Amino acid sequence: MSLPPPPLGQGAGYGVVLGLGIGFAIGMVLVTRQLKKTFGEDNNTTETFMVANRSIGTGLTASAVISSWLYTSALLGSPYLTYSYGIALPLWWAAGQSTMICMFAWIAIQAKRRIPNAHTLLELIRGRYGTVAHLLWIVMALINNLLIFSQMIVGAAAAVSSLTGMNIIAATYLLPAGVVVYTYFGGLRATFLTDYIHTVIIMIILVWLTIQLLTIKEIGSIGALYDALVPLGKKYPVAGNYEGSYLTMTSNQSVWFGIIHVLTNFGVVFLDTGFWQKGFAAEVEAAVPGYILGGNAYFAIPFAFGTIMGLGAQALESTPAFPTYPRRMTAEEVSSGLVLPFVSQAIAGKGGAGAVLVIIFMACTSVSSAELIAISSIFSFDIYRTYFNKKATNKQIIRMSHVGVIGAWLVVSSMATGFYKGGVDLNWLLYFLGILICPALFPTTFALVWKKQTRTAAIVAPLCGFAAGISTWIATAAIEGSASIPALGMAFPCMYATVASTFTPLPITIAVSYLFPDNTFDWPKLAKAIERVEDDEHGQLSAKATHFNYDAYFSPQRVRYMRKMARVALWWGIITFLCQWVLWPIPMYGAYFIMSKGLFTAWVVVSLIWLWIALGIASFYPLIDGGAKMIWMVLRGKKTEPVGEPGDVTPAPSVVSEREKEKESDVVEIDDKKDAF
Predict the structure, then answer these.
(1) What is the mean pLDDT of residues 580-588?
(2) What CATH number is associated with residue 244?
(3) Structurally, how many domains does the chain consist of?
(4) Where does this protein have compositionally biased stretches of type Basic and acidic residues (predicted)?
């Protein structure tokens, strides 16, 4: 059965993918140059390219957090899974990401306390556990980033092709092309700026699409949407849902997906050096509030957008407005992520199709920039600088970062092409991802927060997790019927395998650490061992360079503040998990009821209000939080002092007194008993 003709021509596809890509590339290159002129930010230094001088404020951090999770898989996946399994699904999707983002606030502030000079997650692993563990984590981190990146490209290319008729392989290679240019020149600072611009555009379109769906003549109101959905539970019942209804929270498939999703997302973020770099880039005062604000705001996107667009697709599918009418969408069309393109075309014609094309492009390029930086940082910093040129200068590291950006683009696009040719779609990758990523979750977290985890435990535990996950995956699929590619992509085998790969390492790393303890580890030594890259292009410190001042950074006031914020972040993460993952959905799952019209209306209204709040946090709060002033200064071109964390740097050794040099060698000792977490 052939797809309906694309609503837009190939010219629109190439125009957006190439035209907008080139436009953003040129714009970001110019902005990067202006930032260098205005604030002295030199993207040819490692500190600027990789961690944006550790100077990002709360508003921009929150916006970047939201943008980081605007994967095309989220924008395409939450509507199509809601279409398939009903109203419970988007709540589980949102909780699986919001909880994890709020928990990462704790990781971000702990990184400020333990490894304030780090550029990548893998520096922490090498500093604590040595070469073997470092190499293992390089492999795991690359698997993580490459799979996440290629999964996003697979879904985005399929959607662009369905909307425009553009060749899907061409879309696979061209979607990230413009990103390569501005990431090549601008580094992480360019990533933050483009994240903000992309997020503003995406959020406006999401709000418009949800309102448009509820007000079109075929639906007209929230109550009318409810009325259209009620009979569909009997006509097209959902297996595992209470009475087959789309309007019940008792949905087995949704719960299985929720378990896979939350564990996978914890694994994805805690192993993604791109998220760690954004945490490193945030100011000390911005890390916790930025992640908490962004995490709670992000909840609204899959919750509101998935609910309205996914259920709206069910309601509209039987009307002449729907592109596939009079037939229903095929399973292949649904699992490829085409629900959103089709329903947007139904509610707004070519305008809706164009809007989806734009948000797919924006989401794809926004996440691409972060992934390119992450992969190139691993290549330049953790491979080249660590094993091939230990005395690499700033210039050499940046050159290798540029090589890494281009290489990552070609490798990921080739992987996405391979997945497409092999019949692996977005749905399969969504379910499979956690099996390979989650074994590193607990060992990575313990590396930062638990001083008793030993080198042996850190190496053995994730390997056992891999073995447990893969064997459970294949065995469960075989018991269910067969271990074919379609069967391996089903929810049941993937859920059990993800749980096995996640939790098997936990008792192993604890047991090995206590059976074979190592009591020589010391947090301050680790903090001192990881240094900033402060040389010039010749490898020499100059008067313009800065030297990290441990005394200033670990002042008693700052240490107390970071401890306090670590407690705030930990409790906020726990409370978020309990509210979003336990107290809200589980009682509703066990109640075995179908929503009334009043409850459904309130549910949708709350989701829309939450979406509008997210729009405000993502779009306007960064301007209030210093962004407007920065934009005005950039436009004026007025030169100011270079940005950076206040009080943590001193002039280069060539202009520092002997007394100050002696001070810099001291590290404020942190009380190990109070510093367990």
Answers:
(1) 91
(2) 1.20.1730
(3) 1
(4) 657-677
